[in-house]
Amino acid sequence: MAKRIESYRELRVYQNALEVAMEIFELTKTFPPEERYSMVDQMRRSSRSVCTNIAEAWRKRRYKAAFIAKLSDSEGEACETQVWNEFAFKCKYFSHETKSGIDQKYERIMSQLVLMIDEADKWLIK
Questions:
Q1: Exposure string for 36-71, b = 16+ CB within 10 A, e = fewer
Q2: pTM value > 0.85
Q3: Mean pLDDT throughout 49-64?
Q4: Per the domain annotation, does 5 fall within a domain?
Q5: I need a surface site. Which of 33, 36, 66, 94 has the fewest CB within 10 A?
């Protein structure tokens, strides 16, 4: 019998999103100062928003539409982070390997979010 998940912190998708957000935090420390208030802030914000929207979705499980909306917001933030990741690569702040690794992690996270959305009824508080 599967263990019941008691907190959003136990969700693999949350753990994956937190891990890559922290990776981005560390990587962006090396960006040039002129990117501090543009790319660095935006990339950190969107990567962190993936996590915060998952947490918000968890607390909205009484309402299917609200739950799905917050997961969808999280998916959008993950995609936005992929765009910033691409900019970081094009600006030569990230190597191809770093860019690809981050991109793959967000593809996995988005797949996990889509699965939760598709199976929303399994997650709802009844």
A1: eeebbebbbebbbbbbbbbbbbbebbeeeeebbbbb
A2: yes
A3: 97
A4: no
A5: 33
